[in-house]
Amino acid sequence: MTATATGTGQSRMHEAFARARAERRTAVLPFITGCYPDAAATERLLRELPAAGADLIEIGIPFSDPIADGPVIAESMHRALVAGATPAAVFEAVRRASPSVPVVAMVSVSIVERMGRDRFLRDAVDAGFSGFIVPDADPASAAEIAASCASLGAGFCPLVAPTTSGERLRSLALAASGFVYLLARAGVTGERTEAPEIEASARRLREALATRPAGAPAIPIAAGFGIASGDHVRAVGAHADGAIVGSAIVRRMTDAIAAGADPVAAALELVRGLRG
Fold it and tell me: Is 201 domain-assigned?
């Protein structure tokens, strides 16, 4: 299934957030590491996460030098790479699974550039990806990737930190076409016991999004970093449209592997709890 089989990737992403909003709840976006622990597990997750409560799914393309990822996700990427994971293998897992919800790639700009921007994005969209987060792209690269995404009907999802300057914030708001990934905390990814406080940064981001041209589509906000439970999801949902949960899912998969249990079942159990 390509992103255009049932509408553009961009439209599918917006529809997913709209469905959650109509149901008066926060959209749930689980993060998984591509091909961790193997491609078969990724395919199972892509097929089964929607029924467990995922509104969109974020897949990290394994990279040797993860950006802002804490030790849990970094280790999962290392293991995936050692086992032979490649961008092409992740693409094929998405193609084979044909997930029923939009899938978004979290990918380093170095991988995009190594394959060639147009080829990477085209191959990913052909495989079924709806959108892209490229957290380490500089402003010029981000603008080029956003333009290429637009030509493919895919959503560009910029990442915004609490410390992002006002001018940069407005630039990213204009470039966004999928959703904006709002870092709920500074630092690196990882589970926390307390819910993140995002009211001020979310308000600031909404003000920047309000400067988009008249008639431009409304852009949802999805908050991530340190969100690990249903209570956290509901807390950030007071100010954001979606919640991204990554380290908690990957850690449960890793713990299940260590215990000789099913890592996919462990991930699905956690995601079910995120929807309450």
Answer: yes
Find how far residue 19's CA is from the centre of its chain: 18
Longest Cα separation, the chain: 54
Per the CB < 8 A criterion, the answer to whether 203 and 169 are in contact is: no
Please name the amino acid found at residue 229.
Answer: S
CATH of the domain at 57: 3.20.20.70
pTM, whole model, 2 decimals? Answer: 0.93
The reply to whether 3 falls in a domain is no
Active site residues: 58, 69
Residue 4: inside a domain, yes or no?
Answer: no
CA distance 53 to 74: 25
- Which residues does residue 60 pair with via DSSP β-bridges, in sequence order? 33, 106
Owner of token pair 């009211």: 199
pLDDT at 68 over 60: no
Cα separations in angstroms, 11 against 18, 21, 112, 116, 155: 10, 15, 23, 25, 8
The partner residues of 29 in beta bridges, in order of sequence, read 244
Does residue 37 have a cis bond before it (omega within 30 degrees)?
Answer: yes
Segment 196-219 shows an average pLDDT of 92
Q: The domain containing residue 122 runs over which residues?
A: 9-274
- Domain annotation covers residue 78: yes
